[in-house]
Amino acid sequence: MNSIKICVIGLGYVGLPLARLFSTKYSTIGFDMNQSRVNELMAGHDATFEVSDELLQDAINSHGFKCTSDIEEIKDCNFYIVAVPTPVDINNRPDLKPLWGASETVGKVISKGDIVVYESTVYPGVTEEECIPVIEKISGLKFNADFFAGYSPERINPGDKEHTVEKIKKVTSGSTPEIADIVDEVYNSVLVNGTHKAPSIKVAEASKIIENSQRDVNIAFMNELAKVFNAMGIDTNDVIEAAASKWNFIKLKPGLVGGHCISVDPYYLIQKAQVYGVLPRVMFSARRLNDGMGDYIANQIIKLMNKKGIMVKDANILVLGFTFKENCPDVRNTKIMDMYQTLKEYTKNITVYDPWADAYKVMAEYGIDIITSSVEKLKDKFDVVILGVAHKQFKELDVRKLLINECGVVYDVKGVLDRNIVDGRL
């Protein structure tokens, strides 16, 4: 390929940073079916905060980067990158509809000699068994004869300003050795820390899904320890700090495992493994344990309220933070919701404050009316204050001033507040 023109399909947390980066080296266009998202980006602002306004505007003004929802404008591209979400359904089964839809889009525009690279997290085999047949059907072209494919799993960490897309070492792969080389060269040309070329697409797919599954299992172990030590009256954070003095101890903390990756991706491998007659007991148990932590924390808080003589029924509770992680507006699959639902069984007087979250999105997705500005109005109003997300704004907040009186309960889910001012922490 003499002249590469890139189209990134899906301009969310993964697609936009990648498209912006590629635009510094190649002619690049971003495609998203959400017209309001396209309009926002072309106005020079990214509501996810993954790309700064300065970088986005530079990409548009200096590098010719463009976003569109018009399929006609991406027909002259020859290197398509699919970066759409891979959710699960209500039964935690893989939902491939976004991938099928994106593949249909590719099928309508792909030409002979073109390459399509998938970045979405999937179980091994999805690219070649689920996506490619859709492209073949729509385009009438034959795989590995008329067009080619690759897979390079996304490694974006939402809200992380240190491990940005250009600094992440990327796994690459291709449907033929020659295409694998081209895909690797394209990615390598914009990355500071280079690439790792996997021997096959299936290996690349598997490498991504075990990254998140491994982390899920490790956090589940810490959550299990937290339950044990809480029952024994031992502070889990103290135990972790002591154990971490050993050089090879993996230091992780217990907590709520939400978001679009770690809390979702293991289900893809679990479901696929069962097709082959394998029940991944460790991964399955880890998922069950982590999914139950919101309810567990809520019940720990209720116990503290009872010990302090606070009536749980109709108590005034303040939850600090709603996003799935700190300093990030992403509310996808937030486990704060699980804690909220349990507490709601006892009281409807629950206030959620999060300066990072989009109140409209929270209402649309979860039906909760949250506060996003001015914590000053919240002082002296609550029986319980729960620090659910470690936003930087909360670390400097005098949380006990938010309580009605000194008998109130402060619970620190994240273990970041001064231990002398909290009544309990995970």
Written overview of the protein:
It contains 14 helices and 13 strands. By secondary structure, the chain is an alpha/beta fold. It has two domains: 5-198, Rossmann fold, CATH 3.40.50.720; 292-425, NAD(P)-binding Rossmann-like Domain (Rossmann fold, 3-Layer(aba) Sandwich). Strands 3-2-1-4-5-6 form a six-stranded parallel β-sheet, with helices on both faces. It has a five-stranded parallel β-sheet with strand order 10-9-11-12-13, covered by helices on one side. Helix 4 packs across helix 5 (126-139) and helix 11 crosses helix 12. It is globular. The chain starts with a strand and ends with a strand. The mean pLDDT is 93.
SSE arrangement:
Layout: E1 5-9, H1 15-23, E2 27-31, H2 35-42, H3 53-63, E3 66-68, E4 79-82, H4 97-109, E5 115-118, H5 126-139, E6 148-151, E7 170-172, H6 177-188, E8 195-197, H7 201-232, H8 236-243, H9 265-275, H10 281-291, H11 293-307, E9 317-320, H12 336-344, E10 350-353, H13 359-366, E11 384-387, H14 392-395, E12 409-412, E13 424-425
Helix pairs in contact: 4-5, 7-9, 7-10, 11-12
